[in-house]
Amino acid sequence: MLGKLFKHEFLTTSKVAVPSYIVVLVLALVGRLLTWITSRQYVIDNVPGTFVRILEVLTSLITLLYTLVFLGIFMLTMAFLVYRFYKNFFTDEGYLMLTLPVRTPSLIFSKLTNAWIWMIFSGVIAIFSLYITIGHFEELTDSLSSAWDSIKTLIDREGDYIKDELGVPIWVFVVELVVLALAYLTRFILSWYASVSFGNLIAKKHKIIGTLFSYFLLFIITTILLSLYLTVITTLIPDYYDKLNDSSGRALQTVVFGSIGIYSVFSAGLFAFTNYIMKHKLNLD
Amino acid sequence: MAAILECKKLKKQYGNFTALNEIDLTLPEGKIIGLLGPNGSGKTTLIKLASGLLLPTSGELLIGGKKPGIETKKIVAYLPERNYLTDSMKVSGAVDFMADFYSDFDKNKAYDLLNKLDIDPKKTLKSLSKGTKEKVQLILVMSRNARLYLLDEPIGGVDPAARDYILETIISNYCENATVLISTHLIADVESVLDEYVFIQNGNILEHGSVERVKESGKTVDGLFREVFRC
After folding, report:
1. Segments making up each domain of chain A, as ranges
2. Which terminal CB of chain A, N or C, has fewer other CB atoms within 10 Å?
3. What angle do CA A222, A226, A231 make, to 5 degrees?
């Protein structure tokens, strides 16, 4: 059932996400094309000055628009995904979704996995569009292969050194970083889902205000819990900060694993909290 | 006759407000039953509890002997009084969605009913009128071979001509052994299709009986309702 939930969610969200990403890429492409045209010597020499200036203004506007969209791509994607969560479970659509023969955790998890995909995809689109804007097309293939060569050389030459420093092979460290990024993303997404759930519980009419208030509240609680965690850690390990300040790779490993652990604990708590509200406290209007 | 829905001292409170007050109710299989009462009497709360959208404050509600959960959701077809379909979805997409999640969903029946109503499955839901959307939802619910149909105010928001179509769709499409629970305050419109009636007021069950018996006594359910609920 989880697969079916994910499939329908992915198809519905792609109807908005894919056209939005195409707009980002088209903006980047048009901006690049206009910049290329206005910088051609032939255009400067032969096209009337007024027309070139109009083109330059247009280029600036497109570039400005692209920059705004580029900067907002993660925020817009996240806002859209949070809105989907709210719309699907806390409005009239909830009458369908919450009476399906599936478990509530599956409902939340299908939204979470879908959010992972789109957030990662928005990152890929952002990088790709940036390359369109400032990269050199003719060197694209060369630069990709040379980047790969550089990584290979680094691994071959520095592999043993990195292994000694980190205590693990470099590919394990890369996997750790990917897991860390996913753990961070998961906590971020789930904190919004928990805020939507709690916001709907406390605010009958102004649900957006309720959600934002809940997010702020959650931020404060998270900060307090982190302070408590650090207090406990520093009590148990008196030279904790000295160890962290130690620039060795092993200290870095401690930080990475510690962060993954904290994010995982928070994520589990947020997931359970959201699940509890949806299962026990929700009463659709 | 086996019971499809049983309430034992079922209570639901919202804060200090008691929506259902320790009710006892047993609904048999294979009947069309009217859940009749004025607005705010507890009809929707009872249906929400049976569909698994709410949890009881105390007491018990059983569907086919089980507490509401995944297993009961598989055999309950629920039509809320709200429009629950995503507007950007096509009608055919909504049919696929139901077929994906309910093994008792009959796609052929759904397309047949859509065809009879001249509803183009390729259209998106946002392009349909409110009344047509309601009919699509009813078709999706009645295309399931469920054991219990919970229909919350299915004729509340439509014109009299559409009411006849809706009632006709309900009585000609539900499985013979299934029970249909229709919640409404428009008693005269549904009376002709009912086997049993349940009167509910202020969270209490006032009467539960056979429509046949009411007719034998020379009365109508609508008349009886007016007697019982006289202000």
Report:
1. 17-135, 167-285
2. C
3. 150
Chain B: residue whose CA lies nearest to A14: B88
- pLDDT value, residue A43: 67
Q: How far is B221 from chain A (nearest CA, A)?
A: 30
Weakest mean pLDDT among A145-159, A257-271, B85-99, B211-225:
A145-159
The overall average pLDDT reported for chain A is: 83
Mark yes or no for CB contact B70/A284 under 8 Å: no
Give chain A positions within 8 Å (CB) of B51: 99
Residue that is written with structure tokens 């009959």 in the block: B106
pTM (2 d.p.): 0.85
Check if A4 contacts B (Cβ < 8 Å).
Answer: yes
Q: What is the ipTM of this complex?
A: 0.91
pLDDT digits (tens, 9 = 90+) for B115-163: 988 899 999 999 998 888 888 998 999 999 999 999 998 887 677 777 8
Contact B53 A284 (CB under 8 A): yes
Alpha-carbon gap, residue A257 to A177, rounded angstroms:
10
